[in-house]
Amino acid sequence: MDDLHPLPTTPLTVAAGQAACVALDIPANVAAAADLVRRAADRGAELLVLPELFLTGYEPAGIAADPDRHTLNAADPRLDPLAAACAETRTAVVAGAPTRDPDTGRLHISALVLDREGRFAVQYDKQHSTPSERAAGFSSGTHGCTLTLDGWRLGLGICWDSGFPEHARAAALDGCHAYLVGAMFGLGAGIHQRAVVFPARALDNTSYTLLANHCAPSGPFHGCGGSAVWNPDGTLLTDAGPADPAIAVARLDPHPLAAARTAEPVLLDPSLTTPPGPRRTAPLA
Question: What is the pTM of this model?
Fold first, then answer.
């Protein structure tokens, strides 16, 4: 696999951001996202990942009740302040947002990706919607998504995607060096899930793994924070803790990645697993 997608040769600095959201107030949450972009850029980040549905808050029922008002798309002018922050700082962003398919009308929990010029790069739709999200009217996506930035291949996931080992494995089999997830893990069981799932995905696939998580009340949950990055051996690299707002900034280094993959080459042997499904690839340069 690394013959098709060589390991990166230079480090990449990424950030996972968290902050309180205002329920269904897209302009307010876009402003918070733009602030986090600038905070991340001040600490050297080239890419910021934000939590699931950050631009509306985690409000599936409210979104579905008025999708004309509460969904976004690539051309939505409400994204302009976020695009401006990306362009000013040369920092890409993965922003959690609800979307609606213009052809089918189906609702999706998505990640809208803006590149370092603030231009729309790609949309990823959550592939594993929860039962409650489906009951609210949200459909699951059909494609994985890989971003490319400075020689790094970065697979995207949203919350419950990370609970399915094959989702992160599909990214790894597509040559991804890191797995980036925006999520809503709440207090209680979510604390345990966060602590167990992400080191496992990192170790399973010898990939850096990033979580951007909610850190305040949103919809029916209270996010537990703990946005973080794990090394390819499953050890914790950086953790934002419960603070609001906060960012976890990490320098992804090719050398630990190469060492992990040399030590455990069988983990990424395509002959030992199901081939990944269709994926979209988007450059962020």
Answer: 0.94
